[in-house]
Amino acid sequence: MSNPCIICVAITGSLPTKDNNPAVPISVSEQIESAQEAFEAGASIVHCHVRDDEGKPTSDPERFARLKEGLEEHCPGMIVQLSTGGRSGAGRERGGMLPLRPDMASLSVGSNNFPTRVYENSPDLVDWLASEMIAHDVKPEIEAFDLGHIVQATRMAADGRLKAPLYVQFVMGVKNSMPADEPIFDFYIETLNRLAPDAQWCAAGIGPAQIVINEWSIAKGGHTRTGLEDNVRLDRKRLAPSNAALVKRAVEICDKYERPVATWQKAREILQLRNPAE
């Protein structure tokens, strides 16, 4: 296979702490350093959350601005993707960072169960976040936790609420949501290809499903996500020493399947993103 694979690194998330793994970067400076190491290891997208002074998740636009500025300085060309996830804020504050014009932002287009709560994404909020992304020229990464989310994203693209071509990420292995099941994974690909043949897709696995999903997505021609947000371990006995270590593991899988790792230039071309100088 000759098509390049885009590797996204989710460096922090909302939940992992240094008690889970001391390598989890919490402060803005730690996140920039960790992202730079992952960038040099082969990641071309960095998926970002921010934490407050107590290490709790927040949607504070000022913290996102400092993180974005540092990433652009130390990881020139890397695609910066900011999270609008529901653990970091409520309602429209989840999109308060979109006027910063990051290259990308995550967008969940429907609700689903998480381990201990409902991940609520009301239609009104989804439509508002999508409209803000269009207004500020931010490309959404559709986070699909369920088959219905793929269908909804294609509907939104068809009626103009999202710009085509779509970039859809299949998220599998979340407790009480979709498991890492290969026939379901294959049906996701088939469904997206049927409903949005021009779409690109990525996949992320949570916890022990990370390495499984990395392999499936790379082997089947998609892009993939790794990082300490989703998984803090290399295996049952070893913590991951860094985000870069998890990226290197994904690079090794790309080598196994003879897929070149996408540079930031190639990733921007594939995703039709603006030049970083714009």
Summarize the structure.
This protein is α/β, with parallel strands linked by helices and 278 residues long. The protein contains 8 helices and 12 strands. Helices cover 36% and strands 17% of the residues.
Describe the structure.
The chain has 278 residues and is an alpha/beta fold. The chain has one domain: Alpha-Beta Barrel (TIM Barrel), CATH 3.20.20. The chain contains eight helices and twelve strands. An eight-stranded parallel β-barrel has the order 1-2-5-6-9-10-11-12, surrounded by eight helices. β3 (50-51) and β4 (57-58) form a beta hairpin. The two termini are 33 Å apart.
Topology, pairings included?
Elements: E1 7-10, H1 28-41, E2 45-48, E3 50-51, E4 57-58, H2 61-74, E5 79-82, E6 104-107, E7 112-113, E8 118-119, H3 123-135, E9 139-144, H4 147-158, E10 167-172, H5 182-195, E11 200-205, H6 209-219, E12 223-226, H7 243-256, H8 264-271
Parallel strand pairs: 1-2, 1-12, 2-5, 5-6, 6-9, 9-10, 10-11, 11-12
Antiparallel strand pairs: 3-4, 7-8
